[in-house]
Every structure is written in C-alpha cells, then in structure tokens.
C-alpha cells in the first residue's frame, strides 16, 4: 500500500513537470526568449496585443488631418496598467512620410485592461503633399522613460492611398466629392463599387458619370455628374428625405489664369527685375538706342558699379564729392591726351597737364546737353575725386556664401553646409560640369595637407565597395585642402535629418542594428582583404542612406589635421571608448591590425543595441550590479545585463570587445558567419 502511494506521488510529480515544460515551450514559440521580444507572430505570451479594428480611411487627401481610432485586444498573460512601464500603441513607421501624432498613444492613467479586454487608442494622421501609396504600421508597446519603447509581437499594418488636395492633380482632370446623410453609404460609379461616404474620386477624365448611393436602412439614390477639367463636382445626397441629390461644380483657382499668376508671383517679380536690370546694362554702354530716342525721356540708367580706368567694373567707394561740371561727356585731359590711370593698390598715378595742374579722368554718361563741351579741370588746391577699392568687400567676394572658397566656384555650385567641426567644413555642392551632387570637405587650415593625409587619400580613392563612401577627388593646394566625396541624403527620423549614426537616437530596434552592423562588416571585410585598415572607426564615420543602409567614411584623416587614422597619427582626440588597448599601449597589447577595426565595430554594435558605450559607468549603473564602478571598469557589462532579450549577442560581443587581441575574431568573415547564424531559424527537433 505504501509503495502504491509513493508511486502515485512520483507519477503526479512527473505529470506536473511535463505540463510546465509544455507551457514554457508554447511561450517561447509564441513570443521569444523574454516578455519584450519582437520576433513572435501568434500564440500566448507574457505581453501580447491583437489588432481588432480601426477607423483609418483607405484614402487620405493631401493637406488634411484625420482623427482615427485603433482598437487592440489584450491576449497576453498580464493586465495593461499604468506603472513603471506605460502601455500604449506605438507608431512604427520609421521612414514613413505620413505624420502621426502622437507617436505613442498610452492608455489612460489609472485604467486597467485585463486579459481579453479591448482598448482604443486615438491618433491624428496628416498625409504628405505627394500623392501615392503608403503603409502605416502599429504595435502594442511599453515605454520606459521618454523615448525607450519595447514593441509587442503581432503588429498591425495597413496600406492607404494619398490623393491630391480636392482630388485634382492637374488642370486637365477633375474630381467628384460625395457626401451623404447619413454617412457610410456605399458609392457606385457605373457598375463598380468605389467605397463609402464621405468619398473623393480623384483625377477623373472630363466626362459625364453616373453615381449611385445606397444604404441598408434607406432607399438608394442616383444622379449624373459632369466632370470638368480643373474643377471639383460636389454631390450632396440626403437619404433620409425625398429630395433629389444636389450637384455643384467649383473651378479651382490654382488652375485659372489668376491662380497661375498668384502661384508664380515671386517668379514673375524676379523675372521683371532681371529684365529691368538687363535693360539698364544695355542703356549704360551701347549705341543701339539712339540719343534722341523718346524712351530716353522716361528711362535713366542706374549706375551701380563705378567703372575703373581699365574698363572693368569693381566695387569701389568714392571719397569726396564730384563737382557739377563733371556731368559733361567723357574727357581724358585738357590737352586731349592723358596718361592718368590706377596703380595696383587702387591709387591714381601721375598724369600730364598744363602749367603743373593735375588733371583727372571723368567718366560720365554719354548723353548730350548744353554742358557737353565743358571740360572740367581741378587744380592742386581743389579736393580730387579719389576712388579706392573696398578691402572688406573684396574679402567677402573671396569667401562667398557659407564661407565657400571663391577659387572653387568655377567647378562647384554650393547648395548648403552639410557638416562642420574643428577640422573641416563639409558642403553640399553640385558639379557644374556634370550636375552631380557631391559632398566637399574643405579643411580649415590654410596650408597643404600633410604627407600622411595625401597617402591616405590615394588609398581611399582605390576603394570600390557599396558599403564604403566613394572618394572622387582630393587636392592639396598651397592654401587649401579639400576632398570630393559621394553625397548621401541621410535619414529623416522624428523630424530630424541624420546623416551618420552619431546623432541617431539609441538604442535602435534590434533588426536595424544587425542590418547596419552587417553593412559595416562587409565594407571592412573588403578593405581588409586588400590590406587596408581603418583604425579610427566611430559612429560619426558611418554615414547612412534614406533606406537605412550604412557606408564607411573617414579613411583619410591625417595627423593633427582631420583627426587620426594610421599608426603614426594622433588618437588623443578620439572618443575614449573607441581607442583600443593596443592604440594606447603597444608595448603591452601589441601593434594595431585587423582586430583593431573589429574591436571598434564591436563598440558601435554594443551602443546600437544597448544605448551605452562598453566599459562605461553608465552601462555599469544600468546593469544594476552592486559595488563601485572602479572595481568592474575592466570587465565588460554583457548586453543581456542591460536588456534580457539581447542574451544571444553576448558571445559575439565578448569576442569583439576583448581587451586582448588574441581573444577577438581574427577575420571579419568569422564575425559575419556568427552574426548570420543568429538570424537563421533553428531546426525543430
């Protein structure tokens, strides 16, 4: 009997362990390895949210705002409440052109959404001005702090169409806007269903269309609508009464002659000014318009630039007043001959005269008059009309807009400043020869680049890889050094433009971090295979494209000029976390090499995943370890100690960020293989 009871207890214990194992297995299949994973698609999880419904229209009109509501069901294992973690619906359109406000819509404070209950979240959608098809993505999420979000699995996506404002994109087409009482009625055009009211049918060819509107609770109504080019036909249907549908046509102002003038008024004014100034230039120095032509009575040339003796117009400043007698025609001297002119410094040279008198050259208009035969003479006692060049204005001409070098304007058109630091300024330019966009990096120092920098640029120009910024040209002049690089537009995120990883808010989503780091690794693998090392890899050297792809820059720096790069360069100005042990002390840790780049890539990867730099006091504090930072400053805080779902990256980052070179990956191929292995699905046993 006692043995039978022991057997039952043993059997019951085995049964409990099996049930717990099955529950744990279903949890990992449904979510991932922690409550905040984003890899699952269905099933039961700790935090789960299921899409129920939404009020987002299938088409949005450009320039309008739409308040919408999205409803999700709590199908997880815990309730959604307001606490340390704020629950809400997160908009995940990182690169979408549709403005969504707010980005994170939380549940109300004090509200509790139990398992299997639903909650609705309000948003306001503002579509862009450019028509087209766009995609919206939302998922339930938790928020810690101001901008740290952890999305749930089972997100919601919806494709919508943005139509032009009032449904008309050009003056050759029209549109029909249909409204009904009550709304939500089905609209048919001919035999084709078009949607539910209120509804805009955009960009219709001019013709007559048959529109019918039906509602399950009322009788259907129909009407014929004539669509005219550049016009909106508005149809108002009251299904609750016997009144016939009303149709009105509105011609849009922007497609009329007056509208075109108003839209192009600045261009018209600028064109008129250019034509006027061009006519003034013709009036100043030409014989095409006769002296006695009637137009000269109403038009007088505006003398904006005083001509110099060599016939060239320059910015000049007059000292003294010109006498009234100088309104006569052009005279050279009293004797009809003069050697007076301008020396190189802008002063007047000596000229011939009569009786020791000094004679000046007077250049005035060629218009005739009663005083045209008078020849002004100024003696030594009179105040001469001296003109000197303005050195300040000349300096402004040399510098140009945004400080762009005047000597490069014959080759490049400056479009703006793309970046600036203590070493150089980067301009966005257009090549005048080909029209291609480029990034022009001009050093601040007025001297030719060092020998190190010149050698590095030769190497950089030889690199050809999709994940390396292309260097087209480098020049080292006596007073200037500049590099002509490939121009990247950067990524627009949360209202800011980010051209490199340096300014991108961190941490970023896991899949984006892995994709970016793999791009960098591919570029470094190519460089390492041909014997090139970077040695100063930082987030500021990783440029990004609008499609969130990474390209390596900064292969040429030069000692004490543009930063640091090769072994002989100065690394003291780099961020401390990126300086490897071998760059600090070669005697102890050996010479820099391939594994130096691998270490610095590990720093970037660690920061993208966790938001902190490795071996930093901030990472130590976030891990929650007890004790003083000084006791652990040489020990790596594992990513999983900061975010539990990053545990799979611990082995990789331990190898990348090893203090000893022998503990790191030897080749970039080994790192890429381990990274790819994490993304491959595990075989089911």
Automatic annotation (TrEMBL):
Q: Which Pfam families does the entry mention?
A: PEGA (PF08308), Pkinase (PF00069)
Q: Name one GO cellular component term.
A: cytoplasm
Q: PROSITE patterns per the record?
A: PROTEIN_KINASE_DOM
Q: What segments bear the compositional bias annotation Basic and acidic residues?
A: 360-378
Positions of the UniProt region annotated as Disordered: 311-395
What the entry lists under SUPFAM superfamilies is as follows: Protein kinase-like (PK-like)
Report the superkingdom from the record.
Answer: Archaea
Q: What InterPro entries does the record tag this protein with?
A: Ig-like_fold (IPR013783), Kinase-like_dom_sf (IPR011009), PEGA (IPR013229), Prot_kinase_dom (IPR000719), Ser_Thr_kinase (IPR053235)
Keywords from the UniProt entry = Kinase, Transferase
GO molecular function ontology, one term from the record: ATP binding
- PANTHER family (UniProt xref): MITOGEN-ACTIVATED KINASE KINASE KINASE (PTHR24361), SPORULATION-SPECIFIC PROTEIN 1 (PTHR24361:SF678)
Q: What is this protein called?
A: Protein kinase
Species for this entry: Methanospirillum purgamenti
């Amino acid at each position: 009997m006692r043995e039978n009871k022991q057997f039952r207890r043993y059997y019951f214990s085995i049964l409990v362990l099996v049930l717990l194992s099955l529950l744990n297995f279903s949890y990992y299949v449904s979510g991932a390895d922690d409550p905040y994973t984003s890899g699952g698609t269905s099933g039961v999880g700790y935090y789960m949210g299921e899409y129920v419904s939404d009020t987002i229209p299938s088409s949005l009109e450009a320039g309008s705002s739409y308040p919408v509501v999205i409803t999700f069901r709590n199908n997880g294992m815990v309730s959604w409440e307001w606490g340390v973690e704020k629950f809400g619906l997160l908009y995940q359109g990182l690169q979408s052109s549709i403005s969504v406000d707010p980005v994170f819509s939380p549940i109300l404070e004090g509200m509790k959404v139990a398992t299997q209950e639903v909650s609705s979240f309000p948003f306001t959608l503002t579509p862009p001005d450019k028509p087209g098809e766009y995609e919206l993505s939302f998922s339930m999420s938790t928020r810690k702090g101001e901008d740290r979000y952890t999305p749930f699995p089972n997100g919601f996506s919806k494709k919508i169409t943005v139509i032009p404002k009032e449904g008309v994109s050009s003056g050759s087409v029209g549109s029909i806007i249909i409204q009904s009482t009550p709304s939500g009625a089905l609209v048919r055009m001919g035999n084709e269903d078009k949607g539910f009211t209120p509804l805009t049918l955009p960009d219709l060819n001019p013709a007559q269309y048959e529109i019918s509107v039906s509602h399950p609770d009322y009788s259907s109504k129909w009407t014929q609508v004539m669509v005219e080019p550049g016009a909106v036909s508005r149809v108002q249907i009251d299904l609750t009464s016997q009144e016939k549908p009303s149709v009105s046509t509105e011609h849009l102002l922007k497609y009329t002659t007056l509208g075109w003038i108003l839209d192009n008024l600045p261009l018209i004014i600028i064109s008129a000014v250019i034509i006027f100034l061009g006519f003034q230039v013709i009036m100043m120095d030409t014989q095409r318009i006769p002296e006695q032509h009637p137009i000269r009575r109403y038009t007088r040339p505006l003398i904006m630039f005083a001509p110099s003796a060599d016939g060239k117009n320059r910015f000049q400043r007059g000292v003294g007043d010109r006498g009234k007698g100088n309104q006569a025609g052009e005279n050279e001297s009293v004797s009809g001959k003069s050697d007076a002119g301008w020396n190189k410094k802008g002063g007047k040279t000596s000229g011939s005269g009569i009786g020791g008198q000094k004679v000046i050259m007077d250049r005035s208009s060629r218009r005739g008059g009663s005083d045209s035969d008078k020849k002004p003479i100024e003696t030594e006692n009179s105040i001469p009309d001296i003109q000197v060049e303005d050195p300040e204005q000349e300096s402004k001409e040399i510098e140009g807009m945004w400080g762009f070098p005047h000597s490069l304007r014959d080759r490049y058109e400056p479009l703006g400043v793309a970046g600036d630091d203590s070493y150089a300024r980067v301009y966005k330019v257009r090549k005048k020869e080909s029209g291609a966009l480029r990034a022009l990096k001009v050093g601040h120092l007025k001297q030719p680049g060092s020998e190190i920098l010149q050698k590095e640029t030769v190497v950089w120009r030889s690199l050809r890889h999709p994940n390396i910024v292309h260097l087209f040209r480098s020049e080292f002049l006596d007073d200037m050094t500049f590099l002509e690089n490939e121009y990247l537009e950067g990524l627009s995120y949360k209202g800011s433009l980010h051209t490199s990883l340096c300014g991108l808010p961190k941490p970023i989503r896991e899949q984006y971090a892995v994709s970016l780091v793999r791009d960098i690794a591919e570029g470094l693998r190519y460089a390492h295979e041909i014997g090139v090392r970077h040695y100063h890899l930082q987030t500021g050297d990783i440029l990004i494209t609008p499609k969130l792809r990474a390209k390596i820059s900064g292969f040429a720096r030069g000692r004490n000029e543009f930063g640091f790069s090769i072994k002989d360069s100065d690394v003291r100005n780099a961020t401390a976390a990126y300086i490897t042990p071998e760059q600090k002390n070669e005697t102890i840790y050996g010479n820099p090499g391939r594994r130096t780049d691998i270490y610095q890539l590990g720093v970037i990867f660690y920061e993208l995943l966790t938001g902190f730099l490795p071996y930093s006091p901030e990472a130590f504090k976030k891990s929650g370890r007890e004790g003083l930072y000084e006791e652990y400053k040489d020990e790596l805080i594992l990513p999983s100690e900061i975010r539990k779902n990053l545990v799979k990256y611990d082995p990789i980052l331990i190898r990348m960020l090893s203090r000893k070179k022998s503990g790191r990956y030897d080749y970039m191929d080994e790192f890429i293989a381990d990274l790819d292995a994490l993304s491959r699905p595990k075989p089911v046993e």
